[in-house]
Design goal:
It is a multi-pass membrane protein. The chain is an all-alpha fold. The chain has one domain. It contains 17 helices and no strands. Helix 3 packs across helix 7, helix 6 runs parallel beside helix 8 and helix 6 packs parallel to helix 17. The protein is globular and about 60 Å long. The termini are far apart.
Amino acid sequence: MLNLSKNTLYGLIICSIIAIPSFLLGNLFPIIGGPIIAIILGMIIAIFWRDKGNLEEGINFTSKYILQLAVVFLGFGLNLGAIVATGIQSLPIIIGTIFIALILAYIMMKILKLERNTGILIGVGSSICGGSAIAATAPVIGAKDEEVAQSISIIFFFNVVAAIIFPMLGRILGFSTLNGDAFGIFSGTAINDTSSVTAAAATWDNMWGLGSSTLDKATTVKLTRTLAIIPITLVLSYVIGKKDNNNGDNNRDNEGNESEGFSLKRAFPTFVAFFILASIITTIAVALGVDSNLFIPMKELSKFLIVMAMLAIGLNSDIVKIVKTGGKPLLIGGTCWISITILSLILQHLLGIW
């Protein structure tokens, strides 16, 4: 990765330049977010810019390796100690919603005969943490750029709907307006993307003058869900690698390279190991008294790198094909979203939180 060709560097530079306005617009409109803006912008540009010539090498590099690097830096935003201490209350709900979403996604993928990778990406995106989970899973399963773009677009749609209607739904259902714990857990478990979780929780705080109590609770729950990236990616890489090896499949990644079936490297991807290491470093450093604000630049870098990667994925995607084949993925995404919402409410009620 260090010995980059000129073509790769030029492609990286182009992606980073085009990603800047997407990143800034994402900060300006957090309910949409930089990644989805970047994907849409990339797909629009791709309509008019079909022959990318020598730059294609750098664009492919960005969509694959910069995406993995973004996941590594994402680990610096996870203080495992704080998450375990404050997120334990929501753990049964998190486990339950993740389980139901993954099972439903798998069943519907089989019934609708949807491509494996798309079904997996929608399942992990719905159940864990939206775009970040998709970003971590895509390299593990060798997903194509169009599969990633379609999955993130579907997850984004339901995130926006949730961010808009959940505060009203919370009022109708009678969530406590004296503190933000109940709604914070609800939004943190039933909405998967950070920007949409933040939008819904902040709206509830503003509605009832709760300061940032709902937002703090929702963010903690969301970070606790993010930890599920680790076991999910490891299990997927092992299972899929073993299955491909047993079946003698020759799946290809988005660069056209054949997969080699099961291997230790595929079962425990390097970037996932570094993601775990980054989380451990953050946890130990904060425990030793290091100011957690020190890690904010790395968290922001992770966000920008994800925007860069999504831009590259958009450039490699055919928007017409994605729209034409979007019916089945949309149905799976909607089913997962509704089931997570209902189960979150049921479990909260049974646990006496709501």
